[in-house]
């Protein structure tokens, strides 16, 4: 029995080392994501986790994938990541920004990457089939921040809280809710940052 326990120690040693390396990798990835460029906005009002924001016009790359939320967003992210990494030598690769925006559309989900502020439409590579470059006009949005894994239940719950807040202030929704994800699935739930955005007047 003692021999079996002695032989097991190296196994647990490697398991422990693997866990430490995985944790270190997640921390490094989190730190890199924290440095990603984010769209600037003017803060109109703040109430706990809820904010009213004015955004300038934004340039985005967007794609629509069919299916339910998670598979569609994974496919949308894959397409857009391939686009920003595959620019020609003249145009250069496009830096990843945060957040990734997602919204339900008939039959699927739309995923958007916001283009860096320094990149104009003319400086972007021609998008492949299935990806479009779109200009979002200036807009005011109500936003609610939250942590944890952004699953369907949490997203729906936060949207309900935000809509109730808007109703109490007489704010009218001018479009459907949009989800904003600031971290990749590789980041542990407690460290993730997500938002629900609703355009308003």
From TrEMBL:
Keywords: Membrane, Transmembrane, Transmembrane helix. The chain crosses the membrane at residues 12-31. Pfam families: SOUL. SUPFAM superfamilies: Probable bacterial effector-binding domain (SSF55136). The keyword Signal does not apply. This is Heme-binding protein.
